[in-house]
Recover the amino acids of this structure.
């Protein structure tokens, strides 16, 4: 088990009016659920991004002594400024960014992140993404999939006891369909050192589209261009998107705001959007049951 007197890893997770989803996400980030890592080795920085129905700070902090809660007072529908604020509050040498707090995580994601970071210099660590349900939520939303259906789905498995069971009720996201061996356009559990985050410029606060638009894509692209960086994909770990009416994940494909996001990206950067072209190092998590690999 990884031990330390001060947190090595700071996880920054952003919430916006998602009380239901936050309770599950926060549980999956707790030492009660995560495997092979002690509470003292990581901290969770939970940020409410101007929510009109904010989380209860006492409830957030009840998940562990290493949980911190901040209400970020803003009228912006983008999480980028809240994330950059969270980084200023973090004490860990490694940072993990969860731009969407509706995403539960697998139980070995924290220890695997630190293990991978210890093996390679200048690590940038990505995880694949899944949607809860038997179809992408952009499709299932038109077929009646909603929070009630999702509650029943989650109640059908003992995910609190074994979070790897989440894979059995989830569908891999379109952005992750290439698997661990191909470059990702973005990662919803994106980890790097503080120095790498700063060298890449952090999150560009000009990305003001709902949900941040392509801000997450932009940061990963910037990180992938840093000299001597090692892009690492965790095999056997991932994130699981809960239905919450998300601006991109919970709308039908013909209403997806991708074109709006791309226009904003091009206006900010002056360049057409293109996916990163790196070749990742695949790191197999040691926490995962053999039947999942």
């Amino acid at each position: 088990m990884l031990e330390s007197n001060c947190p090595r890893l700071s996880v920054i997770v952003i919430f916006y009016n998602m009380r239901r989803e936050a309770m599950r996400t926060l549980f999956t980030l707790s030492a009660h659920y995560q495997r092979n890592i002690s509470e003292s080795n990581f901290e969770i920085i939970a940020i409410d991004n101007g929510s009109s129905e904010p989380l209860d700070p006492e409830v957030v902090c009840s998940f562990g002594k290493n949980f911190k809660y901040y209400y970020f007072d803003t009228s912006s529908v983008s999480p980028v400024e809240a994330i950059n604020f969270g980084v200023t509050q973090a004490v860990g040498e490694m940072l993990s960014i969860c731009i969407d707090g509706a995403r539960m995580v697998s139980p070995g994601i924290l220890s695997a992140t630190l293990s991978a970071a210890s093996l390679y210099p200048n690590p940038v660590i990505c995880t694949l993404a899944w949607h809860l349900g038997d179809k992408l939520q952009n499709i299932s939303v038109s077929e009646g999939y909603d929070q009630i259906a999702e509650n029943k789905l989650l109640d059908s498995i003992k995910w609190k006891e074994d979070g790897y069971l989440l894979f059995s009720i989830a569908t891999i996201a379109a952005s992750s369909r290439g698997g661990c061996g191909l470059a990702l356009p973005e990662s919803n559990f994106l980890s790097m050192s503080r120095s790498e985050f700063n060298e890449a410029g952090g999150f560009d606060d000009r990305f003001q589209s709902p949900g941040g638009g392509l801000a997450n894509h932009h940061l990963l692209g910037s990180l992938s261009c840093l000299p001597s960086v090692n892009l690492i994909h965790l095999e056997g770990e991932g994130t699981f998107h809960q239905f919450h009416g998300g601006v991109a994940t919970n709308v039908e494909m013909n209403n997806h705001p991708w074109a709006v996001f791309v226009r904003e990206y091009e206006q900010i950067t002056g360049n057409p959007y293109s996916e990163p072209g790196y070749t990742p190092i695949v790191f197999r998590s040691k926490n995962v049951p053999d039947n999942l690999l």
User: Anything to note?
Assistant: The mean pLDDT is 94. The first strand starts at residue 9 and ends at 15. DSSP finds nine helices and ten strands in the chain.
